[in-house]
Specification:
heterodimer; A: 106 residues; alpha+beta; five-stranded mixed beta sheet; 3 helices; B: five-stranded parallel beta sheet; 7 helices
């Protein structure tokens, strides 16, 4: 279990307990967190689960693979701390993770 | 005006199998898809990725699945309308009048929406200022190369399309290639060509930069790009090209008065009809309790929807359930010769 904080670009915060093994994207979809679309269902094929990871957390995450960076090229306003939330798998180590959703996903 | 028993929106695997299920019942279908070829997400998103959960097919690719479905529906000689999107639908005496964005008109008692997550559209640059220049000096696909001769062209993107067009247009124009990170994704040959052109000054490369703004007024003259540290550079340009791949957008379907849940269409599980009689939704785009977004679920949905389509298209005939192993009718429609 990890408590994940999802901050909507409007500033609204939702803190969700997400089970280990699920992705940060699935944690959002299953709990109706707005701002994450995940059109492709987590197959790293669409870039609509794009999030900005809190700076304190960004370097603690496992590195993104090339395919994820390629998809982020297509995302709406990617930044240095951009990740696809479908590729962030929840574990106890991610307890306290904070992510912010972009202004829009497409 | 094209008259047909069923209009299928979407030529993905589920739309293609719907053609089969309708065809063996003797119904004609016309298939409309916004892409330029059949296959939908299977072809556009993952043509080479293996699929492991098609019954009796332990492993196949998106491409081979599409090819096999096309082979399976070959006997029905179906009309496909590619590069076209259904724009409007209107009820007319129990039939549906369908109009595409290319002003093609259809009349049919049935519409099957097998639209996946929506139609594929080019992803655009996230700057409002550029919208008014679209089609004049801002493009997301290339139709007429002549337009791009002796111009100042700024190309955005880091994938194959961006790189290929940058190389191509560097021969006839002044090209600046702008990408959000330092790495490009392209064939090794393309990347080495790019390096060469950069060295000889034939292409200017700006990384890691993204678009920031464009000039005001009626003519595009320059754009500002910004890097991660907030540094802004002005680039003189009269053409902007963006290659950020395709996104899926529901588009006009959302305005047809169908009951929806988020981006999916509510259906019953008896015949996958929506709240509008004669409009069905199958595959990833439909929603019902327990729905799984699997290709095999879409096949089942296609089979059941086709029965109701038959009843609506042939109101004076009785529907007879038949097996392909024994039905002479089905075998005849499939072009199978029995001795």
């Amino acid at each position: 279990m990890a408590k994940i904080t999802y901050i909507h670009h409007s500033g609204e915060k939702k803190i969700i307990e997400v089970e280990n093994g699920l992705s940060v994207m699935e944690g959002a979809i299953q709990n109706n967190v707005p701002g994450i679309d995940a059109d492709c269902g987590g197959s790293m094929a669409c870039a609509t689960c794009h999030v900005y990871v809190d700076e304190k957390w960004f370097n603690k995450l496992s590195k993104s693979e090339e395919g994820e960076q390629d998809m982020l090229d297509m995302a709406y306003e990617p930044k240095k701390n951009s990740r696809l939330s479908c590729q962030l798998i929840v574990s106890d180590e991610l307890d306290g993770l904070v992510v912010t959703t972009p202004e829009k996903q497409t | 005006m094209i008259k047909t028993d069923v209009i299928i929106i979407g030529a993905g695997p589920v739309g293609l199998f719907a053609v089969h299920q309708l065809g063996i019942k003797g119904l004609t279908a016309n298939v409309i898809d916004n892409l330029d070829k059949p296959g939908g997400q299977c072809i556009e998103l993952y043509p080479d990725k293996p699929i492991y959960d098609i019954p009796a097919v332990p492993e196949c690719s998106g491409k081979s699945l599409t090819d096999e479905l096309l082979r399976q529906i070959k006997p029905f000689k179906t009309n496909f309308h590619f590069n076209e999107r259904v724009q409007e639908i209107k009820e007319e005496k129990g039939n549906w009048l369908i109009k595409t964005n290319k002003n093609k008109n259809f009349l049919s008692p049935n519409i099957i929406i097998a639209g996946g997550v929506g139609s594929f559209e080019p992803r655009k640059l996230p700057i409002k200022d550029l919208e008014k220049f679209e089609g004049k000096s801002v493009f997301y696909s290339i139709n007429n190369k002549e337009l791009f001769k002796n111009r100042k062209i700024s190309i955005f993107g880091g994938g194959d399309s961006a790189l290929d067009w940058a190389l191509e247009f560097s021969k006839i124009s002044k090209v600046t290639l702008i990408h959000r990170r330092n790495e490009f994704r392209g064939a090794p040959h393309t990347l080495s060509q790019l390096e060469q052109l950069k060295k000889t000054g034939k292409i200017v490369i700006k990384t890691p930069f993204q678009i920031n703004s464009a000039n005001q007024g009626d003519t595009l003259k320059s754009i500002d790009i910004k890097n991660e540290d907030g540094k802004i550079e002005k680039i003189e340009t009269d053409i902007v090209l963006g290659f950020f791949g395709l996104i899926m957008q529901l588009g006009p379907i959302a305005e047809w008065g169908l009951n929806m849940t988020k981006k999916t269409i509510n259906v019953n599980t008896e015949n996958f009809q929506t709240n509008k009689p004669g409009i069905f939704a199958i595959g990833d785009i439909c929603n019902y309790p327990g729905k799984l977004k699997l290709i095999l679920s879409g096949f089942h949905e296609a089979a059941l929807a086709s029965v109701e389509c038959f009843k609506r298209a042939r109101p004076n005939e009785k529907f007879k359930f038949q097996f392909s192993t024994s039905s002479k009718d089905i075998q005849k429609r499939l072009g199978i010769k029995n001795d």
